[in-house]
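FW: tagging you since you asked about this chain on Friday. Here's the raw sequence from the shared folder, copied in full. Didn't touch anything.
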Amino acid sequence: MAVLTMKKIHILGLKQDRKAILEYIQSTGTLQVDMALAENSIFKRTNTNASITHYERRSANTEQAIDILNTYVPQKTGLFDSLKGKEDISQEKFQQIIADRHAYNTLVAKIIDCGKEIETAKAGIAKYTLGIEALTPWLSMDIPINTFGTKSTSVFMGSLGPSLSVGEITGILEARLDQVPFYVEVISSDRDQTCIVAICMKKDEEVFEAALRKEGFTRSSFVSSRTPLEKKKKYEGYLKNFQETIDSVTKELEELNEQKGDLFILADYYRIRSEKYQILGNLIQSQNTFLITGYIPEKKEKEIQSHLQELYTCDVEIEEIPEDEQMPIELSNRTFFAAGEGVLTSYGLPHRGEVDPTSIMTLCYIFLFGLMLSDAAYGALIAIACFIMLKKYPKMTDSLAKSLRLFGWCGISTLIWGVLFGGYFGDIVDTVSEAYFGHKVTIKALWFVPLNNPMKLLIVSMIIGLIHLFLGLGIKGYQQLKHKDFAGFLGDVLSWFLLVIGLIMMLMPTSMFASIAQVEIKFSPSMKTASYVIALTGALLILLFAGRSQKNPLARLGLGLYGLYDVTSWLSDLLSYSRLLALGLATGVIASVVNMMAKLAAGDSPFGIIIFILIFIVGHTLNLAINLLGAYVHTCRLQYVEFFGKFYEAGGEPFTPFKENTNYIDVTRK
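HL: got it, structure written out here
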């Protein structure tokens, strides 16, 4: 439960060393550079846009070459290959690729040219395939496509409406033409069009064409001295050549694919260089010196300072960050608690001086998640799957590893709650033993079965919710006492502890509480009086201190009365924990329904056991997926709204050090 202490660092060095110093800082990944330093008459920024553009273009070209290889020389990948993480590359290998980068640039250009050649061939295949499809209705025509007639005749090639016969076309034209001789032949007819060749005398061309167009005639767009069949064969020759080109170039890419691993290194190298020049362009420099200002974790300051002063002629000064300056936030928690950092950062980082609630929140998250899912078998499956993946893929990204570790512990919590509530794939033990062994066997719950006693689970949920809310309120009180805000502690924390506890004590002896909890509680007169006194004291503290920022007594009283209205939000927050009951019951009910469906579907069929297993697997997989998502969403909601709402402000800016942001490799340095 800690935020790393940050220091402000100033590095003043010789201009000739700036690139080497920047490369060292980038390799360590421990310093966030302040990009907002103002220029003056001596220190100015250098325009590095040309270098940035150059390296970005090189990086983009290399990425394009990698994409081409991935497209045309695909490699088999497993379902979980994305978890493998980046490949470790020795510093010697990295330097070797850098030294040979010009040869690799030639390789990149060659791969890009191959990609363009394949795309051109594919475009040609698409073009001539469409051409063949358009020619298909005309293949039975044995005259050249561009036949327009003879000295005394005119020829019309084109299409009319769908599914017409020669007789129908002739009848239509004869009705429109008076004593005009013509000849019509149907080349093909389908539900889309009727392809025809029509011949008339030259002198009747205009009249005949007008009659055709009134029936929707459209001339063929083909122009060729070949017959359709000859044209098709020509197109097929083009297709064959294009396909041979694709096969030949693909084979060449298969040979070049052996160097894809080197291209990964090259792409990351150019990306690193581009980012270095972006930082370099934001540094202020004089004629002979340069200045870097930024933030560094306190635990790294001596290492960086001693290294820079030992190897370079530079001055390194480290100071405390001024109180009025925002400090970048970097969380530092033990492995178990760090698993919940992803949940916290999704909401927001703590601001400077605020408590890091990661540790407490992680424990609460795991506890509440398990209660919502509460099935021992589901919990075991989740935990086993998560911890196996963590063990098998140690190089996965840090954020993914934290998430899997969190869900692994949530699985263990679910397992424990499942044992307490007696849930093992719902009531699978009861169902299987009764259906296939003739007598019911039940694994008894160590505590109670929620389906048999839902009101008890509701009371448990409310108690857990109250503890969770009080925990958040307690953290707020700790922060106020730490900052010596005693009035705030009295008016915002102690007052609500007293008021809520007093109201609960007043409620407990009532008949309404007895009907809900199914337990009758009796208080002595002194206890009843004490509950009134506690609640009244809390209310008075709120009345007196809620408006403490106002000097006007009436305004202060008004704000105090308004502060008392927040008791409704406490009631709303507390009722929100009934979702623990709802989701806990939902998991068990759906699981039991799945088991019942499997049992009924199996019946006395000889294949009953197979049917039972299939329904069991599908049903419980869906139930686990749905309730896993529900538990995740609602547990986050209880943290973000109810828990954080009591104390957490967030708003901190993340620590973003200048480092080697690579996509494919990690360089192992000595």
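FW: The longest helix spans residues 608-643.
HL: agreed, and Residues 6-98+257-319 form one domain.
FW: great, closing this out.
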